Amino acid sequence: MDNLNSIVAVVTRMTFLMLSVLFLGWAFLLDFRPIISGLILGLVGGTVYTRYLSMKVHGLVEFAVSQEKKRFSFGFLTRVCLILLVTMVAVKLEQVSVISAVIGFFIPQLLTIPVGLVLGARSKS
């Protein structure tokens, strides 16, 4: 489980680095502000989504180890509502590109794959 926490920590740091670059781009590239704003909104929502899912997976592992007889939920409705919230904010604000918000939302989840592979290869050697 420590490997999952380290993957999420690295993904969060990479996302914060991308956010800092995007904020600089938002300040200096005036023509691309809607696209950059959408990416910023999507990255923030995607990071919250990734951290929440990590917390739920950690809870599932504890649930499996404890062998209790209660129900466990992955919080699917909460995660869907988070996606809808990011999309609705992007639709409501005309200064934000919806497509770039959706793309930005999936970047942290896609970052978990290469980060997991790299950290897994490092731990084996």
From TrEMBL:
The keyword Transmembrane helix applies. It is found in: Cell membrane. It comes from the Bacteria. The chain crosses the membrane at residues 7-29, 35-52, 72-91, 97-119. InterPro entries: ATP_synth_I (IPR005598). It is a multi-pass membrane protein. Keywords: Cell membrane, Membrane, Transmembrane, Transmembrane helix. This is ATP synthase subunit I. It comes from Paenibacillus aceti.
